[in-house]
Amino acid sequence: MKFELSKAGTYLIVRIGGELDHHYCDIIRNRIDPELMEPPIRNIVFDFTGLTFMDSSGIGMLMGRLRIVQAIGGNACLICDNKNVLRILEMSGVARLFNRCKDISEAVRGA
Predict the structure, then answer these.
(1) Share of the chain above pLDDT 70, in %
(2) Domain count of the chain?
(3) What count of other Cβ atoms lies within 10 Å of the Cβ of residue 30?
(4) How far apart are CA 39 and CA 55, in angstroms?
(5) Which residues constitute the domain of residue 102?
(6) What percent of the chain has pLDDT over 90?
(7) Mean pLDDT, to the nearest integer, of 12-33?
(8) What is the reported pLDDT for 109?
(9) Which of 26, 29, 22 is nearest to 5 (CA)?
(10) The domain spanning residue 23 has which CATH number?
């Protein structure tokens, strides 16, 4: 798994590649949550461009971060080009809860 955090204005950008399972979800959750509590961050972008696999724990991790961002008045964006991962996100209903963007620049436009 590849995992990287960066910031752009009020956006926390989370890039995840490879396989996202329950073990990595705990690691990611522990790194993201403190960052979401630091002003001026209030929005999050999940860049799944390099993601090849995600299980149900990934869905739970996304939903938890979405709740945090919404509680602080922010928005969440999802970038994903893998058809299998998109299918999981769509079947679970998670895809419709996130803004969908084609790339980072579109997600943070005006940051």
Answers:
(1) 98
(2) 1
(3) 9
(4) 31
(5) 2-107
(6) 95
(7) 95
(8) 87
(9) 29
(10) 3.30.750.24
